[in-house]
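Next up, sample data:
>
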Amino acid sequence: GAFKGKVELIADRARLAAAFREIADNPTVGFDTETKPVFVRGHRHQVALMQIALPEKVFLLRIKSLGLSEEVLEFLQSHHIEKAGVGIRDDIQ
């Protein structure tokens, strides 16, 4: 089954606060990050994209252009929103 909900790309800060207000209404969200792969030992890339899934909507946040804004940090630190995903420990690191 493919996801049939809405997908919203957020690439600038104008929509960021409204998106996190919507996310905050959910006690559990799906969570994933995407990072450019590294093929050289000892090198790391920063997170490029953060995906936050609600039952009927997925937010794709372009972290590479947004940076770790206050809204993103508050979401990551929130104990009121459970983040569910596969390999989530690696995503948070």
